[in-house]
Amino acid sequence: MDGTGYCGWCGRPDGACPDRAVCVRRRGTDPPRYCPSCARRMVVQVTPAGWSARCGRHGSLGVEADAPTPPVG
Ligand SMILES: [Zn+2]
Ligand SMILES: [Zn+2]
Predict the structure, then answer these.
(1) Domain Biotin synthase auxiliary protein C-terminal spans what residues (predicted)?
(2) How far apart (Å, rounded) are the C-alpha atoms in residues 51 and 1?
């Protein structure tokens, strides 16, 4: 916890959720709808392996972080 994020479900500053229990539960099961860094709406794609969400400013975040990195060079 760094205390400077936003709720991925309702987009409010962390700790300011109107229904915290709902947000916590949703964030445990559903893809986030808002970027936790800037609260912009993210493009969410559900895949067979899980989901991925992409912020126009921060790029993609998601559970598919183990995708192979392309060779550099
Ligand atoms: Zn929330
Ligand atoms: Zn962002």
Answers:
(1) 42-61
(2) 22
Closest-approaching ligand to the CA atom of 39: 2
Q: What is the pTM of this model?
A: 0.73
What is the CA(11)–ligand 1 centre distance, in A? 6
Q: What is the pLDDT of residues 34-54, one digit of tens each?
A: 999 999 999 998 888 888 899
In the chain, domain spans: 1-62
The token pair at 33 is 């709808």
Closest ligand relative to 17 C-alpha: 1
Compute, in angstroms, the gap from residue 64 CA to the centroid of ligand 1.
Answer: 23
Check if the beta carbon of residue 34 is closer than 8 Å to that of residue 11: yes
